[in-house]
Amino acid sequence: METKTQGQVRLVNVFKAFRDGRDVVLNGVNIEFPAGKLTYILGSSGAGKSVTLKHILGLLRPDRGEVWVGGKDMAKLRGRELLEHRKLFGMLFQNSALFDDFTVFENVALPLVEHTNLTKQEIADKVANALQVLGMPHSHDKYPNEISGGMKKRVALARAIIREPQILLYDEPTTGLDPVTRTTVDDLIATLKRELGLTSIVISHDIPSALLLADQIAFLHQGEIVFWGKPAEFRKAEHPAIRAFLEAEERTVQALTEGKLH
Fold first, then answer.
1. Chain-centre distance for alpha carbon 51
2. Distance CA 232, CA 226 (A)
3. What is the C-alpha to C-alpha distance for residues 52 and 171, in angstroms, rounded to an integer?
4. Is 38 buried (19+), middle (13-18) or exposed (0-12) by CB count in 10 A?
5. Taking the model in full, what pTM does it have?
6. pLDDT tens series, the chain, 262 aa
């Protein structure tokens, strides 16, 4: 299978409801994530971003519709075939999800130890290369509680790419971070986009990061994709929910500039 096909992700008329159909979360989602491009999925809380991500991973199955990843419909995969197909993914969790009792090296090496037959030296070489790409060549023996929040994100990203995935998923990568760490994470996402050329999908509330980094932005509102396009087009979008989203960000920035928020 060609890399281009492996990196393709497409949702076709996906519906998902909970509570016996009373709580509709996805209401006919249609979207394609181009191979090798970085797409941000924006939207307010409860819009369906996380549910969309779980469908892409095969953690949820749609009530109706298709979720195509690497040429296969995730909704139809079961058991070992589903587990094998998930190897196309790397995942950065919101809180990094590092193991506190493992060193940096051990955290990054874990997917290779658990899922490959590589030798210790081959694993060591791959871990060193991943940490080098992410700017941490000298922190192998440190534990998570000995490194900063930004460094934890670097380690988590190194672990996400260690098995050379075709698709990289980010779950709210900048939520709750201070401005310096947020900038660091943005730089890391830009580095991986440039160096690896993966299909990357970010779910986020972070408008500035999306406008800066994305090849395209999707906006989810009430379970539907109401916008899909380039960042410059997103700035000009007339949909009321998007205008409210952008204007709220502008008011926050203005209040911070004027010293009204602390």
1. 13
2. 16
3. 11
4. buried
5. 0.87
6. 344 555 689 999 999 999 888 899 999 999 999 889 999 999 988 889 999 999 999 999 999 999 999 999 999 999 999 999 998 999 998 888 899 999 999 999 999 999 899 999 999 999 999 998 888 888 899 999 999 888 898 899 999 999 999 999 999 888 877 888 888 889 888 888 888 888 999 999 889 999 999 999 999 999 999 999 999 999 999 999 999 989 887 776 566 566 655 5
Flag whether 262 is in a domain: no
Spatial separation of the C-alpha atoms in residues 53 and 85, rounded to whole Å = 15
- In the sheet that holds 199-204, the strands lie side by side as 89-92, 167-171, 199-204, 38-42, 216-221, 224-229
- 76 assigned to some structural domain: yes
Helices (H), 175-259: 179-196, 207-213, 231-236, 240-257
Specify the pairing of strand 167-171 against strand 199-204. Answer: parallel
Residue 112 lies in a domain: yes
Give me the domain span that covers residue 186. 3-257
The tokens of 130 are what?
Answer: 């991943």
Identify the helix (H) or strand (E) that includes residue 261. Answer: none
Task: For residue 172, tell me if it sits in a domain.
Answer: yes
Q: For residue 144, what is the domain's CATH number?
A: 3.40.50.300
Q: How many domains does the chain have?
A: 1
